[in-house]
Design a protein that fits this description.
Radius of gyration: 20 Å
CATH class: Alpha Beta
CATH superfamily: Alkaline Phosphatase, subunit A
Strand content: 5-15%
Largest sheet: 8 strands, mixed
Strand order of the largest sheet: 9-8-10-4-11-12-5-13
CATH topology: Alkaline Phosphatase, subunit A
CATH architecture: 3-Layer(aba) Sandwich
Helix content: 10-25%
Shape: globular
Number of domains: 1
Structural class: alpha/beta
Distance between the termini: 38 Å
Low-confidence stretches: 1-56, 58-95
Mean pLDDT: 84
Order of helices and strands: HEEHEEHEEHHEHEHHEHEHHEEEEH
């Protein structure tokens, strides 16, 4: 997310906590250090209104955080509220005709609208030219909000944006104890770390005896900044990974799994499932526990490849920062994205699991904040009337799908969004749809897949 720059520049030297679960009785220790934080680099074409809008959100954060951090518990009460009404609602059962996909890979990039990427292939020939020619281009795919974190949360839970995660969770705060969950699955109030009663697709997969992993590039590169597994701030403390630092471009806000107590309160589960991406040779940060494996190692066999792999590049490789702070890179964000994709996409598509029954989705979290359009029956959640801060959504971004079940060169103009992605994943694995995945107007279907189930 690029709009909270003023807040992120406010300190040049701050104490940096190690990772902790923030759960009662946790035996985690914290390695405290003082770490210099260089000024954030900016991309000049960003809409100037983004910073102004973010300033309003940051002002609200200080008030909301006090409520969310004090007296909060890790549970929420279910109340009999009326479900959200939408048009074009889909059922909660599996979509008929889906191909036999058993391995889903999702790569999430940062802050680009359709016109800047897929609409201008010369600017990013691999992403906008090579990959669509190998699979399907979804020309009317949308983010669900601004800024970053709410989109990542939506992709695994179906939860709508709230003011704190629209502001990218500057403080890693619980929801207040008064938060309730409506019958439509949406949680009330504003917060960052969801109570144990809130379910994600990761929880669903675990319960269904299926496998998943979050692969986070750079996580654990600097152990005093975040842990090498399940890295996140102590609950109630500031998130000091909001900016990249030399050698480490991990951003907690781009790691949706650590925002759910259902995951982080189970230390063994989180440590083994939210792991560093690692290098293409399989190397991991020195602090990774014995037995931890990154994506390159896991791709070597079908048995070790998770059913669902969520892949987050660092703040350089996802296109967020240009020029880059954590590593050497191109001044062009799209060039950095292209380099990352050219490195990892062939490894994924060449893996035994992908070749047998895989689906790779490459998407962005949101468009530039000037575009707050939406699609697909998206509705606001209880805490934020405008998911896109200035409008109803996260803007048109476009998405590419690669699969043995997708005909090369397919183009679909059917409207989709992040809730569509979640609903499709849940349908593929026979899971109940969560949150707004229940009511999204469309999931990936015959417009995308050439081989039915």
């Amino acid at each position: 997310m690029g709009g909270l720059d003023a807040a992120r520049r406010s300190a040049t030297t701050r104490p940096v906590p190690g990772r902790a679960t923030g759960s009662p009785g946790s035996d985690r220790t914290h390695n405290m250090a003082t770490f210099p934080r260089p000024p954030r680099t900016h991309r000049p074409r960003r809409c100037p209104t983004r910073t102004k809008v973010a300033a309003v959100l940051v002002g609200a954060v200080s008030v909301l955080t006090a409520a969310c951090s004090s007296g909060a518990t890790h549970s929420a009460t279910t109340t009999a509220a009326s479900p959200v009404t939408t048009t074009g609602a889909s059922t909660t059962t599996s979509t008929s005709g889906l191909p036999g996909i058993r391995h889903v890979f999702l790569i999430v990039l940062e802050n680009e609208g359709f016109d800047a990427t897929f609409g201008t292939p010369s600017a990013d020939p691999y992403l906008a030219g090579t990959l669509p020619a190998q699979g399907a281009l979804l020309t009317n795919y949308y983010g669900i909000g601004h800024f970053s974190n709410d989109n990542y949360i939506a992709l695994i839970s179906g939860q709508a944006p709230n003011p704190l995660n629209q502001a990218d969770c500057q403080v890693f705060a619980n929801f207040p104890a008064s938060a309730t969950v409506a019958t439509n699955g949406q949680i009330s109030d504003s917060g960052c770390v969801f109570p144990t009663t809130m379910t994600t697709v990761a929880d669903q997969l675990t319960q269904a005896h299926l496998t998943w992993k979050g692969y986070m590039e750079d996580m654990g590169n600097i152990p005093s900044r975040e842990s090498a597994v399940c890295g996140h701030p102590t609950v109630g403390s500031p998130d000091l990974t909001e900016k990249a630092v030399p050698g480490d471009g991990y951003a907690t806000r781009h790691d949706p799994f650590v925002y759910f107590h259902s995951i982080i309160d189970d230390t063994k589960l989180c440590d083994s499932h939210v792991v560093p991406l690692g290098t293409t040779s399989g190397s991991l940060p020195a602090g990774a526990p014995a037995g931890t494996t990154g994506l390159a190692t896991d791709l070597k066999s079908i048995a070790t490849t998770p059913n669902f792999s969520f892949i987050t590049p660092n703040l350089c490789n996802d296109g967020h920062d240009a020029p880059c702070v954590n590593q050497q890179g191109s001044p062009s964000a799209l060039a950095n994205i292209g380099t990352f994709l050219q490195t990892w996409v062939p490894l994924i598509t060449g893996s035994p699991a992908f070749r047998k029954d895989g689906l790779l989705e490459i998407t962005f979290d949101e468009a530039d904040s000037a575009d707050a359009t939406s699609c697909c029956g998206e509705t606001p959640g209880p805490a934020s009337a405008l998911p896109g801060v200035t409008g109803p959504g996260g803007g048109r971004i476009g998405t590419v799908l690669l699969s043995p079940f997708v005909k090369a060169g397919t183009i679909s103009s059917v409207p989709y969004n992040h809730y569509s992605t979640l609903a499709t994943i849940e349908d593929i694995f026979g899971l109940t749809r969560l949150g707004q995945a229940k009511t999204v107007s469309a999931t990936f279907g015959t417009d995308v897949f050439s081989t039915p189930g």
